Amino acid sequence: QVQLVESGGGLVQAEGSLTLSCAASGSDFTVNSMGWYRQVPGNERDSVAFITSIGTTSYADFVKGRFTISRDNTKNSVYLQMDSLKPEDTAVYYCNARGFTSRGPFNSWGQGTQVTVSS
């Protein structure tokens, strides 16, 4: 079982910045893709950003130019640098990781971290 632990959420003013971090832990696993999603109560969980094991990235249109995803494969960690934050970025942000363990594929989620952007 691969577990994800997120950190870095909080309250920030509009146009401010936050960095989210997520680390995967477990035994005998390989992480392929990692990503960040966000969810507002009553809405579906939306993909925010995605990064492959070789560093190829993809962003949702609503964060392009403002958010940057990166990863450290030596630490099985993924980060989300969020700049020029807007009130509409307020949501619970979830980390996701997919890959393989010795028992087969995994698709793990973090517990979520609240990001609140005040106007």
How would you describe what is shown here?
With 119 residues, the protein is mainly beta. Strands 2, 4, 5, 6, 9, 10 and 11 form a seven-stranded mixed β-sheet that branches. Strands 1-3-8-7 form a four-stranded antiparallel β-sheet, with no helix packed on it. It contains no helices and eleven strands. A hairpin with a 5-residue loop joins strand 5 (46-51) and strand 6 (57-59).
- Count every beta strand, where a strand is a DSSP E run of 2 or more residues: 11
The description of the largest β-sheet is: 7 strands, mixed
Q: Structural class, please?
A: mainly beta
N-to-C SSE string, H for helix and E for strand: EEEEEEEEEEE
Query: What share of residues is helical?
Result: under 10%
Distance between the termini: 40 Å
* Form type: elongated
What's the number of helices? 0
Report mean pLDDT, rounded to a whole number: 97
Query: Beta-strand percentage?
Result: over 45%
Radius of gyration: 14 Å
Low-confidence stretches: none
Tag the structure with descriptive keywords.
mainly beta, 4-stranded antiparallel β-sheet, 11 strands, 7-stranded mixed β-sheet, 119 residues
Summarize this structure briefly.
With 119 residues, the protein is mainly β. The chain has no helices and 11 strands.
Question: Helices, strands, pairings?
Answer:
Elements: E1 3-7, E2 10-13, E3 18-25, E4 29-39, E5 46-51, E6 57-59, E7 67-72, E8 77-82, E9 91-101, E10 104-109, E11 113-118
Parallel strand pairs: 2-11
Antiparallel strand pairs: 1-3, 3-8, 4-5, 4-9, 5-6, 7-8, 9-10, 9-11
